[in-house]
Amino acid sequence: MTSLTVEKPPPAEPEAPTRTKNTLAKRLVPWGYLSPTVVLIVLLMVVPIVMVISYSFRDNVIVQENSVFAGFANYTEVLTDPDFLAALKNTFIFITVSMVAHLLLGLGFAMMLNSGMLGGVTKAIFRVVYVLPWLFTIAVIAVIWRLLLDPSGVVNYVLQTLGVISDGVNWLGDPGSALWVVTFVNIWSGYPFFMISLLAGLQGIPGELYEAASVDGANPWQKFWNVTIPQLRPVIISMAVLDLIWTSQQFALIWMMTGGGPLNSTEMLSTFTYKLAFSEYEFATASASAVIVLLLTMILAFFYVRQQRER
Amino acid sequence: MAIRKASRTRLIGALTAATVALALGACGGGDSDDVASDGTVTLEFAQWWAPELPDGSFDKIINEFQTANPTIKVKLLSGPYASTKQQLVTGAASKTLPDVVGLDGAWVNDFAKQGAIADLTELMGDAGYDASQLASQIQLEGKTYMIPVVNFVYPLFVNQDLLTKAGVTKVPSTRTEFADAAKKITATGGNVKGWALPLDTAVPNGIQNDVMSWLWASGGSMLADGKPALTTPQVKSVVEYVKSLNDAGVIAEGSLTMKEQDKVEKFTTGQVGMMIDSLAHINLVKENAPDLKFAIAPVPAEDGFTGKRGIPYASWGIGVANSSKHKAEAFKLVQFLMDAKANAELATLANGFPGNKTAKPDFSKSDPMFEEAFKIYQEGFPANEFVGLPKSEDLMRSFDEQLQLVLTGKSSVDDALSKSQDSWSSVIE
């Protein structure tokens, strides 16, 4: 207390320039710290995105020196291409089915691991087993499942031995089954992330809420709907939107398993765009396709950000 | 004082961060320091060859070049084929190709039209190089853009055990004999099929290696005066033949999404009796299945065909970037790799055939099959009409999609060929 009275404030007049300097320096400090990130974002995100958007409005880009302005012609060409529309439909099926299955499987396994019915060792074993698919890279997953699903592979052998099917099924080579098979593999490889996140969410629900529900006479089903789900809702919504965004970008799995075939039955927006760019060298229409994907993804990102703000 | 010191520290921290940011920004531009103070030039050489050769063997060849040319250093940029292709496509687009580039014949047209790769005819002239020693040159409008360094042919591989088991005594030489052998092998049962046909659309080279090879083996062509000619009786007979094999159930299942490596795997494990494949895979098959008895033969031709058989091939080609500041030095490297001695050494290591006509690969330590294949190669002629075509991978893919429609009964042969013809005509001007 005494020190406050002893130390007098410095005279105002001579300190004025220093304060101005300090104020300016203080204002610059945060920008100085932010500058590496800002530069990186500009170089690695803003510049490429702006370039791709500009390419999408031009023709003869990249592969020819004299590109010309084409207006919305590339967008018209892409949006009226039956292959693009088929890819859009396939992508919609792929991402929605994957997300719903990821959620249901993740929630089911998370609840199982969170229940008091299993012992510690059993839980640890299940935890390791359930999380395994998440540890494999996409390349390994694609190779493993291609081998398993080969017409003379393990899956057909097991199913035939069990009498489920009489003849071997051409899982990836049949246009009727290929999309569902790659979706299944994507579900298999992605559910552990949901499981881990939901398990963390479940472990954060206060036990008192269940006790109160029990006092009110709620049965397990009512506890699930009225306690568990409302408590998990923010996690579920965040995970679902993120999963839709991630799955819509899935390229490697499709490319390595089917290449978009057979007969374009597994063509996704990502493989469609890749083929336009790196096989047909149509970088202008590929850019238009990429911008459309960006816009669709931004809609999902908008919902994600809004949901995060509400939290 | 303490407050001022903290302020100063924060400011210094922020300035450091800003300096880092400026440095990051500067990373994007500027030339690499490719000329040392003593005048030594450093060439960048991007290729997929080194990973496919025995460990360190390509570095040894490059060291020989550096010893012979002390003022030139070579920085190898080695990666798998697919990633090398992607890097070169983006490099060509941004005019940042390495000085020397490994090329596939299928890329040449597009790179040359972009002005990304240099006219080698001019560089050969400047260097006084004798081009008559080259087995082939990939040209566009009379100018050479790629020189094939090593060639890999694609003969017919036959599982002799399966052939014997099926009661076939002679390796098939005609389409009828092949169909007959394929049916007999399939009839032996146990999930074994006569032939493997990879038609995966991600890498649609099955069209080149496994389908068009039937056409070239009978002296046919898919082009007429440089334009697509897919509706000719010759091409139609190939598609009808493949369809007849498919209808007979002699093609291994899953061909619509089968990749080249799946084909090799099926042959190696005895699940298919015959395949058309790169000679480079002989060692791979022998390594994975030392007891497998197999032979190689020319791709069967149409019954009664007596002419020279075209044998499909793929090449490790080489070119020089148009943006290179050291084209003369880059061509010295090309010249060295095409030299009879180095070229023979490289061909021997790669189990391929040299791009220099005078180079003699050393078969003394190789499998006798390579010598046999060399005879097949010399008796026929290397045929690959996709080399030099624009967007050749896309041409293969569009043909692949139409063939898939034929094999699944969703299109007639005539319709498929007509649509392929239209599709190709829009690409090949």
TrEMBL record, chain A:
List the GO biological process terms.
transmembrane transport
The species is Paractinoplanes abujensis
* UniProt cross-references to Gene3D superfamilies, sorted A to Z: MetI-like (1.10.3720.10)
Protein's name in the database: Multiple sugar transport system permease protein
TM regions (residue ranges): 31-57, 92-113, 125-148, 178-200, 240-263, 283-305
Source species, domain of life: Bacteria
How does it sit in the bilayer?
Multi-pass membrane protein
Q: Which CDD domains match?
A: TM_PBP2
UniProt entry keywords in alphabetical sequence: Cell membrane, Membrane, Sugar transport, Transmembrane, Transmembrane helix, Transport
Q: State a GO cellular component annotated for this protein.
A: plasma membrane
Q: Give the UniProt family note.
A: Belongs to the binding-protein-dependent transport system permease family.
Q: Which residues form the ABC transmembrane type-1 domain?
A: 88-304
* UniProt-annotated location(s): Cell membrane
Q: Which PANTHER family match?
A: BLL4140 PROTEIN, DIACETYLCHITOBIOSE UPTAKE SYSTEM PERMEASE PROTEIN DASB
UniProtKB/TrEMBL annotation, chain B:
Keywords carried by this UniProt record: Cell membrane, Lipoprotein, Membrane, Palmitate, Signal, Sugar transport, Transport
List the Pfam families.
SBP_bac_1
Ion transport: is it a keyword of this entry?
Answer: no
Instruction: Please indicate which superkingdom the organism of origin belongs to.
Output: Bacteria
Identify the PROSITE patterns for this entry. Answer: PROKAR_LIPOPROTEIN
Signal peptide (residue range): 1-23
Q: Mind telling me what this protein is named?
A: Multiple sugar transport system substrate-binding protein
Q: Report the source organism.
A: Paractinoplanes abujensis
